[in-house]
Amino acid sequence: MLETIDPKYKGNQAVGHHVQYKFNSKHRAYLALDRNRDQKLKPGDAFLKIVHIHPLEISDIYYMVVSKGQIIDMNKLRKGRVMYQKVEFEITYEMVPSFRVVVFAHYKDELLADSLKFDVQRVCHPDAEVTIETEFDDLAPGANGKITINGETDTLVGLLGIDEAVYALSKGDLLTKDKVFSAFDKHDLGCGTGGGLNTDSLLSNAGIILATNKYSPPQDTSSSCSQKKRRKRDLTSAILSSYSGTDKECCLLGMNYDIHNRSCENRTDTVIRYLKGRHEHCSKAFLDCCLETEPFEKDPYVPGSSFIPFDEEHIFEKNLFFRADFKEVWIFQDIAINAGNKYELLLSLPHSITTWMIQAIAVSQIHGICVAEPKKVLSFKKVFLQLNIPYSVVRNEQIEIAATIFNYGSKR
Q1: How many separate domains does the chain show?
Q2: pLDDT in tens, 375-407
Q3: Nearest-5° angle of CA 312, CA 315, CA 316?
Q4: Domain boundary, last residue among 123, 141, 169
Q5: Which of 123, 231, 318, 372 is the most exposed place for a label (fewest CB within 10 A)?
Q6: Is residue 114 domain-shared with residue 146, that is, in the same domain?
């Protein structure tokens, strides 16, 4: 049990509990990776981790590096009656954004193992990176200029130039490096940061299945975290499938996490008062969906997390509007970088007073995918006229058109 001792809050200190379990081994043997993970890792760094060994008779210790569901490296540690060994290797770009180190050995008739997960700085391979350069002599609408994409020869690049106003309400659709690497990290077959009560659970949490002539893997090879995620996803789909239209929207609202930790009944009373007798089915759908998901809100699996898993948040993001045309799009094309390690695109600025966001995603045949840092291009005039024209008029109709003059210059 842990308790704070802040003198400002006498008699009202925060209390936390942590239960630690020992590793189960019938021979009282173990392999233990050093839990000190203060080192910030990046490609090119030398990785070093201590493996504590008990008893000293354990030999033939192996280590394995796993990333994104693939075995990146596997080697054998040196033999010797020692209390600890060193796991050493070089961090490569294949290990971005995270990897797991699994050590294992056979002692008497028992398999021993330990594992840890490590995060690596989210950077692309230098040969997969692309940069964007813009060159416009004049930033007025309609001005001519060029955009240069720098990168390795034969790299395929997808270009997108879009009005920044599209992202005014939400930047959830803005493609970034972090989003790409987060998608890569979902290929991790493991669960948690490492460790386990016994060898079976430890290997399962590391996303590893090991089968030998003396060791058979457990029949249930799915980890506890994948089972929980699957159960939540199934429940979500089952609940939503029974509603449609407005009732479905009300159901989604009922599933949302309440930051005030109110009960479903109290939240439903608020909805009823707000609706003032209208949409009776909405309040019922809200309550039913809230009650269905309430057990997951209180699940201590991930403290402080909501019912909706991180990788499913996009399903529940409410789109305030949907645009079917692409008038906000300036550039939308694929290119291949030329032999000079660059590609020049000649074009003109659209006739809009706005800021354009230029994005590029590169795909290398050897080094994979990478996203360039977005580049902004401001299309602007010091003085311009804006007309609020109605979307339609009929012949001989008398209308009023409001004209607004914007003057950002120094003269009136």
Answers
A1: 3
A2: 999 988 888 888 888 888 999 999 999 999 889
A3: 100
A4: 123
A5: 318
A6: no
- Choose one of 79, 99, 123: the last residue of a domain: 123
- Choose between 354 and 226: higher pLDDT: 354
Whether 158 and 98 share a structural domain: no
Q: How high is the pLDDT of residue 210?
A: 77
Instruction: List b or e across 90-108, with b for residues whose CB sees 16 or more CB atoms inside 10 angstroms.
Output: ebbbbbbbbbbbbbbbbbe
**With a threshold of 0.70, does the pTM exceed it?**
no
Flag whether 353 is in a domain.
Answer: yes
The distance in angstroms from the start CA to the end CA of the chain is: 71
The domain in which residue 119 lies consists of 30-123
CA distance 96 to 121: 7
State the CATH number of the domain containing residue 339: 2.20.130.20
Q: What is the mean pLDDT of residues 350-356?
A: 88
For 60, 250, 343, the CA distances from 78, given in Å and listed in that order, are: 8, 62, 51
- How many CB atoms sit inside 10 A of residue 31's CB? 25
- Nearest-angstrom CA–CA distance, 31 and 46: 22
